[in-house]
Write a structure and sequence with these properties.
By secondary structure, this protein is α+β, with helices and mostly antiparallel strands. It has three helices and nine strands, in the order ββαββββααβββ. The protein starts with a strand and ends with a strand. 30% of the residues are buried.
Length: 152
């Protein structure tokens, strides 16, 4: 059962936009149309010109339920999307991005942490990404977070 969708618009030069509804989707076709339209206005990228649209590729990700991960590396590379929740705000990078950019698990987790707004990698005693004993994620010096993965 799907719970969410993400639409990523890609040009030959790289990503042009992305938008995700990671939960609460009951009408997938409507959610995909909405995400594709809203992604065109993604403030992280320069505006998409009408002339670019025919050349863009659309990548669709469908999400299942997200569940707590045992640690930041508790996911299947390229098939399970990882999410970090920092101060209640979820951030994710679709699993397909890891494959497209040939990222290692560490590179993917680092990119996710940067996207979530951590200036530096969360760490304990100098070791990057050491999970808390309760398995709820990776604390940082300035506040905790937790990792969630897609349940397959």
């Amino acid at each position: 059962m799907y719970r969410g969708v993400a639409v990523r618009l890609i040009a030959d030069t790289g990503d042009r936009a992305c938008l995700a509804y990671w939960y609460g989707v009951t009408d997938a076709p409507a959610a995909v149309r909405s995400a594709a339209y809203a992604a065109r206005e993604d403030p992280r990228y320069r505006p998409i010109e009408e002339s670019e649209i025919p050349e863009l590729k659309l990548e669709l990700s469908v999400f299942g339920k997200f569940v707590p991960a045992r640690d930041p590396f508790d996911f299947q590379s390229g098939t399970e999307t990882l999410m970090v929740v920092k101060k209640g705000d979820p951030t994710l990078i679709q699993a397909g991005v890891m494959t497209d950019l040939q990222m290692s698990k560490l590179g993917y987790v680092r990119a996710l942490c940067r996207k979530a707004g951590w200036k530096r990698m969360p760490e304990i005693r100098g070791s990057p990404l050491v999970p808390r004993a309760d398995g709820q994620g990776c604390p940082s010096r300035r506040g905790g977070g937790r990792y969630m993965k897609e349940k397959k």
